[in-house]
Amino acid sequence: MRGKLLLTATLGPVLAIVAVFVLAGCGGSTKTITQIAPAQTSSQTSSAATMTKQQAGQAYLAAVAPANAAGDALTAKMQAYSDSTTGDQVSADAQPFEQQLTTLNAKLLALANSYPPAASDLKALVSAYNPVVGDLQSASAQNAFSAASWVQQLASDLSKTKAAVAIVRADLGLPPAKS
């Protein structure tokens, strides 16, 4: 068993950032919206959009809904953490969120191909999410000596996604995320 994490002193700030990320970072809503499939295109490579801005916005909201739900669940579990919470427990709790972010990244890259006007910003958002995924993957390696640093790194990486999300939401004609 790994050393116990001393999380109680450092957990408050990261919970606040995780909650903001989940509600504002991904999509601002955990409501499921039916994803509109991109139109079929010919085999020729083209930079023309295969979706309208509205369709791309709805596809984005549908893509982020599962990550929002997984983030909500992680936040709820993190609120119950104490000094006796192990790195293995944090890792197990973080795994669904990490998996949903990985899935979200794939969906965002597909959306970038279907809606080229926002492609560079969608790819920048994926790049912003990658360090968060790495942080979540490293949770089990934490111990009492590294927990505070890990929490601070996760909080920092989560906060860096906010600007990228705001840009993507604007590109897709969506209102700013609720914070």
List the helices and strands and how they pair.
Layout lengths: L7 H19 L26 H26 L8 H28 L4 H19 L9 H13 L1 H11 L8
Helix pairs in contact: 1-2, 1-5, 1-6, 2-3, 3-4, 4-5, 4-6
What structural keywords apply?
single chain, about 180 residues, mainly alpha, about 65% helix, elongated, disordered N terminus
Average pLDDT score: 77
CA-based gyration radius: 17 Å
- Can you tell me the residue ranges where pLDDT is under 50 for at least 5 consecutive residues? 1-9, 28-46
The description of the largest β-sheet is: none
Helical/strand content category: mainly alpha
String of helices and strands: HHHHHH
Straight-line distance between termini: 37 Å
Strand content: under 5%
Q: How many E-type strands?
A: 0
Number of helices: 6
Overall, the morphology is elongated
Helix content range of the residues, please? 55-70%
Integer count of domains: 1
Describe the structure in your own words:
This protein has 179 residues and is an all-alpha fold. It has one domain. The protein contains six helices and no strands. Helix 2 runs antiparallel to helix 3. Mean pLDDT is 77; it is low at 1-9 and 28-46.
Briefly characterize the structure.
The protein is an all-alpha fold and 179 residues long. It has one domain. The protein has helices spanning 8-26, 53-78, 87-114, 119-137, 147-159, 161-171.
